[in-house]
Predict the structure.
Amino acid sequence: MKRMRYLTVILVFWLFLFFNIERLSNPVDITDVAYTFVPLVVILTILAPRLREVPLWAFLSASALLFLLVKTWVKSDIWGVSLPLTVTEVCIIAVAIILARWVSNGIGEFERAITRITIGRDDGLPEVSSDGQVEMYRELKRARHYQRPLTMVAIGINEDSIQVALDRMVREAQQAMIKRYVMSDVARTLCDELEDYNIIAQNGDHFLVLLPEVAPGQLSGLSKRLRQVLSEQTMVTPQIGAVSFPDDGTTFDDLVERAIDAMERDREMERSTRAQQVSTGSYVT
């Protein structure tokens, strides 16, 4: 994205220089054809994704030839004393096209990245061409030859439901990004609150924290402090399950499993308390 910003700024700056070149250099007198042709070719380059498939040299040559043809058509001088101006205008058009192509390529990369993130890779998708029908026809011949059962199913999509699915995908993507941000905020807060020798690791949708030299009697005060800090700084309500070695387990897997079980019990207790408060009307969001 940073590269995309730089390319866009460079393109805008180049267009700014182009439209103000006569003010910066009096001998240069850009024709009206160039003033019209440059923004049009830039817009076309960015808005037409298929032009990315055209080799750059071919697109530059075609644009320069079209520009010369348009100048000839409007009876604007090209040769003679106007040749230096014509060369200058062609160079300006070429630079504008190159910058616009870079911006267009950046937009394409961004679109492909978003597609991979939101939709995923297309490996293993069903055939949409005649290859799939060939495979089906082969299976039908096999079933007919060996007198085996076969079922054909046609599955369509209600057009109105596509918008519903899209809205759901957008909501899920937003929730995933928000959750990632919150998890990062919680991790940063834990790193600030705990000592440097404590070990913090993310395990799915929760964190594992290893506290060397912390005895069972210290867990209550530490848990209370972490609940308060996380609630104040990250605006989330944490569920904390704490176990100790060797009272609750002697292996790493035992400690992890029992800590997660304790965390789940704390979560269920919180849900029960919240439901009770809602039923009595004392729950405040």
